[in-house]
Structures are given as C-alpha cells and as structure tokens.
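Exercise 3.2. Students should predict the tertiary structure of the chain below and write it as structure tokens, then compare their answer with the key that follows.

Predict this chain's 3D structure.
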Amino acid sequence: MARYTGPKFRLDRREGTNLLLKGTRSTSGKHPIDKKGAVPPGQHGQKKTFSRKQSNYGMQLREKQKVKRMYGVLEKQFRKYFSQAAKKREATGEALLHLLETRLDNIVYKLGFAFSRAQARQLTNHGHVLVNGKKVDIPSFNVKINDVISLSKKGVTFEFVVEAIKETPADKVSEWLERKGTVGKLTRLPAREELAADINEQAIVEFYSR
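Answer key:
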C-alpha cells in the first residue's frame, strides 16, 4: 500500500505540532517545531504562523490531516475507518480512535517494540510480528481484545528492538496493554483519557459530516 516517504519533520511543521514520527529524534529536544520562529514548510511558509486564526473548515481539515499523518494512514483508508466508526454504537469519534489504536503497527509501537509507528510498520511488513503465534505482515491488521502479539526469533535480535524495549519498561506500557519480555497482549480498548489529549476527534467527525 502507498505511504508517505518524504521528510517527517516537514509534516510536523505543517501541522504545527510534534507527531512523534521520528522516534528518538522527535523527543531529543532538538525538534524543529520547538525552535523559535518555526514556520510551516513551503514557499509561503515565512508569511504564516501556527497561531493564525482559521475557519471552522480549516481547523477541521488540519485536525483530520494531523491524525492521518500521526498514524501513517492515507486518505482512502482513513475515510474507510471513518465509515466503519460511524456504524458502531459508540461515539463515532472515539470509535475512530479505537480503530486507529488497534492497528497492528500501532500496537507494536505502543508495546515498546519500536521507536516509532513507521519503524513498527516496517517490522510488521518484513514478517517479524506474530499474532497469536501466526505471522501477520499487514500493518493495518485489526488487533482484537486478548490477541497476543510477539516477535519472530530474528525480530527480537534487532538492535533497535532491543533498545526500544530497554527504553520502554513493561510498567511504562499503556495500561490497556500488557507486556512480558517480548510478548504483549491487548487486554481492553483504551478509555478516551488514555489517548492523545491533543486530538480533537469531534472536528474530524464534523469534517466528514459536512
């Protein structure tokens, strides 16, 4: 499936926030978005500021783009997630976040097996992730409650995996997940307060409901 392969920091600058797309480089304290005078990319970026007042449509569009980029999902698939969320009994915005959070690449990232979602996606694409003991190489695979996530024998030896696990002890993993060594499990769906507070999912619902 197609994916964005350009500069990750450019996306951060466009959205005016740190999307944590570069793993340790995003949390090193030297992120471009933290620099004084940081502006959006492009020829006319110098004429704009991140605090510029936007229309409701502009705000909704930027929120949708931000979340898409955060999870590494393109428009067609994101719209499909929204359609699925709209059919669920829970609030559409929260259902959308649950669908994104239970993507296999996101679960691998949240379990601390990788430093970023992109790294987790690559680990999955190359066949180093197992779900209930079976290889799954589809990053968008929907992990269900009580599914067990583990790594292949080769996967657990990768230097970045070893370092990522060391950087994220089991007791620092999200409370809706469980990890012992290199084996993790989705124990329940996350509550809204356990997810990113800077996401305005209602703005995304309003964008697609126009």
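Discussion points: The radius of gyration is 18 Å. Residues 121 and 175 are 22 Å apart (CA to CA).
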